[in-house]
Specification:
The complex is a heterodimer.
Chain A: H1 2-26, E1 35-51, E2 57-69, E3 78-86, E4 100-107, E5 113-120, H2 123-168, H3 174-194, H4 198-224, H5 242-275, H6 281-308, H7 312-320, H8 325-369
Parallel strand pairs in A: 3-5
Antiparallel strand pairs in A: 1-2, 1-4, 2-3, 4-5
Chain B: H1 3-44, H2 51-71, H3 75-102, H4 109-112, H5 126-159, H6 165-204, H7 209-214, H8 216-252
Helix pairs in contact in B: 1-2, 2-3, 2-5, 3-5, 3-8, 5-6, 5-8, 6-8
The chains are: A alpha+beta, B mainly alpha.
């Protein structure tokens, strides 16, 4: 009864939070300095078929929109705006009734107002998807779901703060800052997920060693091959040393996967040992290796798809612009492939490392018992 | 020597040294998946084909490779396969719903500067491609979670064949709860790793909080991360239920 009441309280608190935050993002226009207008009617003015120099066919449309202003001095007024878009919508969009837009107001000489579109107000959709994830997480995995959210948010804040530090200090080394971050992320995430115990300690040590070894391997390979086959073009919009940024990303990207491998192996070995205290070290090693074999394929695939997929739109754009196959792949995919391979190396290296560290911990606790 | 080739060789050697035959299969699977992505790209280039349908077919092939090729065809991989496909379909619905409103397709204004020389009117629907991208970034994590749940469920059932459907389902859910934190972590850091440059850039430009939240690139990233997380969460009850149903089905008849 008590537990039910407590749970009811949590759920109602969550409900109130969800509804009020959604209400807030749907009505926060006054907080924005930019003028916001909601599309209240749309008419298509004209459409025109185009063919570009590579014989791609597309259709260009011009829409005339009526916007109702939601904030600022002209709140409530209606203005006219125009929007052009194409069927492919690569850097434009078809606007529909109900969409809210950031606009800049213009006044013509005769005093009539019109608006030019600056962008779409997307904050409310972010709030919706974040709440969908949160609610599903809590419904499906309850306490663990809450822990997962807390860890992710904390890690995101730490990273954001660390990047601020990096931006603010000219002489700060990104790699050093990221190393500190990795130390904090690893210890914090594993502690929250698994609590203070042997498994966590072994997993933390294994994660740090695994990450360091895989980075050393990747670094050596890149140095020895003079980074042949790597194209940094996609990072050149940065005004900072982009190779360092790439390395820092390499560092961070594989960390989650390496932690996953380390904790899977250490916790199953410790559990196995606690259930069968007489089990031989050889048998423990054997089952640790079996688990490692089972997870390394799927884990490397997670990283592979998470990295590669983001490049699909740009690859298609290049191909459609008659980009040569090899050139297009190298320019847009080489860094992602290196990330995936380095992450894969991290995952595989961590398997034996986690195995030995965990067994060392088990042996040590055996001695203490004796 | 090409750095990518050397790294791939090292990965192959490590996988073989630690995983033996299964390690080699895992490496080949990675390579096959790469080929699937390339083939998918070719089909996406054809304007008359729907990119989402093509992506779903690619997901079936990828799940096939990840589950049946690495682990062989058996009961646990079959239920994991069905669960992966169903979760992907549900996820497509969610992603389609949100991206229609959020308009995150194509390239952000920050990126288009670099693309000045390219024709952007190429006749391919980038809205549908954006949906495909999110599905593709999650498919690895979905199949991973599915097999991670169905495999211990099969273990449990073989140790305790009298277990009823409800208990087996609950066991699957408890396994799922144990892996959810680390799976989300894996995805989170992978995305952070690849978006790090953009994050630094946003900070360099001194965007206000409102600018960042409403920008196409950032909201696209957040939607991708959330949808991937949603995929991993969805796959837990779906796999648990299908596996529990499949294993205890004979007794009911």
């Amino acid at each position: 009864m008590m537990i039910n009441r407590k749970r009811m309280m949590w759920f109602s608190l969550l409900g109130v939070l969800c509804v009020s935050s959604l209400y807030f993002v749907f009505h926060n226009h006054a907080l924005y300095e930019q003028t916001i207008g909601e599309v209240t009617s749309v008419t298509t003015l004209n459409q025109e078929n185009t063919i570009d120099q590579y014989e791609n066919e597309d259709t260009l449309y011009t829409q005339q929109l009526t916007l109702t202003l939601k904030n600022g001095a002209h709140q409530g007024q209606e203005v006219i705006a125009e929007n052009g878009y194409s069927t492919s919508q690569a850097n434009d969009y078809e606007l529909k009734k109900g969409t809210e837009l950031f606009v800049t107001m213009k006044e013509a000489k005769d005093g009539t107002q019109s608006a030019t579109i600056d962008g779409v107000k997307r904050d409310k959709y972010l709030a919706i998807i974040i709440w969908m994830l949160l609610l599903m997480l809590i419904v499906v995995s309850k306490k663990q779901g809450v822990f997962a959210i807390v860890t992710l948010c904390t890690n995101a804040f730490i990273l954001s703060y660390a990047l601020d530090l990096y931006i603010a200090n000219e002489q700060a080394s990104l790699l050093f800052i990221c190393s500190i971050c990795i130390l904090i992320f690893t210890i914090f995430s594993l502690l929250v997920v698994n609590g203070v115990n042997k498994k966590t300690a072994a997993a933390i040590i294994a994660t740090l060693i695994g990450t360091a070894v895989s980075l050393a391997i990747t670094f050596l390979v890149l140095k020895l091959t003079n980074e042949q086959g790597l194209y940094y073009e996609e990072l050149q919009f940065l005004t900072r040393p982009y190779k360092t940024v790439f390395f820092a990303g390499l560092f961070l990207g594989a960390l989650g996967a390496v932690m996953d491998v380390a904790i899977t192996i250490s916790s199953s070995l410790v559990t196995l040992y606690e259930e069968h205290p007489t089990i031989s070290i050889k048998a423990l090693t054997q089952s640790g290796l079996e688990i490692g074999k089972d997870i390394m394929g799927t884990m490397t695939n997670i990283l592979f798809f998470a990295y590669i997929s983001g490049s699909i739109p740009i690859l298609i754009l290049y191909f459609k612009n008659a980009g040569a196959f090899g050139y297009t792949l190298s320019i847009n995919l080489s860094l992602e492939i290196v990330r995936a391979l380095a992450g894969g190396i991290g995952i595989v290296v961590t398997i034996p490392v986690a195995l030995y560290v965990t067994i060392l911990f088990i042996l040590k606790s055996k001695k203490v018992v004796k | 020597m090409n750095a990518i080739v050397v790294l791939a060789l090292i990965l192959f050697v490590l996988m073989f040294a630690i995983g033996g035959k299964k390690g080699i299969r895992s490496f080949i699977a990675l390579f096959l998946n790469f080929i699937v992505v390339i083939v998918l790209l070719f089909f996406m280039n054809v304007p008359s084909l729907n990119p989402i349908v093509v992506t779903l077919i690619a997901c079936i092939v990828i799940s096939w490779i990840n589950l049946f090729f690495i682990n062989k065809i058996n009961k646990k991989t079959q239920t994991a396969f069905v669960a992966s496909i169903i979760s992907t379909l549900v996820l497509v619905g969610v992603i389609t719903f949100i991206s229609q409103f959020a308009l995150i397709q194509g390239f952000g204004e920050e990126e288009t500067e670099e693309l000045g020389a390219y024709s952007l009117y190429v006749g391919v629907d980038f809205m549908k491609i954006a949906i495909s991208v999110i599905i593709m970034s999650t498919i690895g994590a979905i199949t991973d979670a599915a097999i991670a749940i169905s495999s211990p469920m099969q273990e449990m059932y073989s140790h305790q064949p009298t277990i009823d459907r409800k208990a087996l389902f609950r066991f699957g859910m408890s396994i799922g709860r144990d892996i959810i934190g680390t799976s989300m972590n894996t995805l989170f850091f992978a995305f952070i790793g690849s978006y790090l440059a953009l994050l630094i850039w946003f900070k360099d430009l001194h965007y206000s909080f409102g600018d960042i939240v409403n920008s196409k690139i950032f909201s696209g990233e957040v939607i991708t991360i959330c949808c991937s997380g949603l995929g991993v969460v969805l796959v837990i009850p779906i796999t648990s239920w299908i596996t529990a149903y499949y294993f205890t089905r004979k007794k009911v008849q």
